[in-house]
């Protein structure tokens, strides 16, 4: 009993530290960039806003929306990765590895370059549709065979989906060079030059996904015991996977609609959260949400200084950060087999 209380206290402390880091990262995101904002102008933008102050205008129109988008997208992608790893029993599962981000991206590129759609609300639904089709295809490919869903087959199926949608996206851009500039920076994954109106379109779906993920967390603990044991305890495994897949589509599709395909957040953060919080998804998922937001905020701040005065798209930065981590996890899993 005493050990359990100490463990709970440590989990609360770790989450509290994460919240502090989140606040500090958000402040850094608002303050630092090509033009550093003073603390007085930062506070004044919220308490005594003046339109004749360029610094305060930058805070309200550019830096604050950017920070809020980074928080929302980082939390959503980390939660989506944790859910996918739980239901597939694969530590390498994430929206980017299984092709869900690429499916949403392809759908948006198709809508923009072929059909000429530019309405934000319409593109949000297009992104959800592309994410759903890619998720369904990855699940079907991963379930083929006598033994049903297999972690290895899920990764192989996801790799096929990634290759298919990436090639199709490049094909669209080659055939329609006029649309290349409209989507190329977005395809790299970026939260720059996005406004709060775009986030406002998807945040209701993200909030539904966040809440549903937390509600589902006890069922994920049972599923982690093994599929046969979960069925023996009365769990409807197929329904849990279906609900989790729907949540992933909401989170990943919404993230892509706002920021494009930002990769590897969904792989990195769940492993960090698992190290800090343990295997209990009731704690693991809140850790993922907080530390996912922190990671994307810090990656975005770092991306502003690499080639200043230009910026590196944050999707490239997360790939640079996450690639060694991905290789480490893959090698560890091979050693454990």
From TrEMBL:
Positions of transmembrane segments: 12-34, 64-84, 96-117, 123-142, 154-176, 196-216, 284-306, 312-330
Any one GO MF annotation of this record: transmembrane transporter activity
Subcellular location: Cell membrane
Organism placement in taxonomy: Bacteria, Bacillati, Bacillota, Bacilli, Bacillales
Top-rank taxon: Bacteria
Protein name: Iron complex transport system permease protein
GO cellular component assignments: plasma membrane
Annotated keywords: Cell membrane, Membrane, Transmembrane, Transmembrane helix, Transport
Organism: Paenibacillus aquistagni
Principal localisation: membrane
UniProt membrane topology term: Multi-pass membrane protein
GO BP field: siderophore-iron import into cell
UniProt xrefs under InterPro entries: ABC_BtuC-like, ABC_transptr_permease_BtuC
């Amino acid at each position: 009993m005493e050990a359990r209380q100490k463990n709970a206290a440590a989990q609360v402390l770790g989450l509290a530290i994460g919240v502090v880091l989140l606040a500090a990262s958000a402040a850094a995101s608002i303050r630092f960039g090509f033009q550093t904002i003073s603390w007085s102008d930062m506070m004044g933008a919220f308490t005594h806003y003046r339109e004749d102050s360029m610094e305060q205008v930058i805070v309200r129109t550019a830096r604050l929306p950017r920070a809020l988008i980074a928080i929302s997208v980082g939390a959503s992608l980390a939660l989506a990765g944790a859910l996918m790893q739980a239901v597939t029993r694969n530590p390498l599962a994430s929206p980017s590895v299984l092709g869900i981000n690429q499916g949403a991206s392809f759908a948006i590129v198709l809508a923009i370059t072929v059909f000429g759609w530019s309405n934000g609300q319409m593109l949000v639904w297009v992104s959800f549709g592309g994410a759903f089709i890619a998720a369904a295809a990855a699940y079907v490919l991963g379930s083929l065979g006598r033994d049903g869903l297999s972690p290895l087959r899920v990764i192989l199926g996801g790799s096929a989906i990634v290759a298919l949608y990436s090639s199709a996206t490049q094909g669209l851009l080659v055939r329609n060079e006029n649309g290349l500039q409209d989507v190329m920076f977005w395809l790299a994954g970026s939260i720059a030059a996005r406004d709060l109106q775009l986030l406002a379109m998807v945040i209701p779906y993200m909030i539904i996904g966040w809440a549903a993920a937390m509600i589902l967390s006890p069922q994920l603990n049972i599923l982690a015991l093994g599929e046969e044991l979960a069925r023996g305890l009365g769990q409807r495994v197929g329904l849990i996977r279906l609900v989790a897949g729907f949540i992933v589509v909401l989170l990943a599709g919404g993230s892509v609609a706002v920021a494009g395909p930002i990769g590897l957040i969904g792989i990195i953060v769940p492993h960090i959260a698992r190290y800090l919080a343990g295997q209990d998804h009731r704690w693991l998922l809140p850790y993922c949400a907080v530390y996912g937001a922190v990671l994307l905020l810090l990656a975005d701040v770092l991306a502003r200084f690499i080639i200043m005065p230009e910026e590196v798209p944050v999707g490239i930065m997360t790939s640079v950060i996450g690639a060694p981590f991905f290789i480490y996890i893959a090698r560890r899993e091979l050693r454990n087999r």
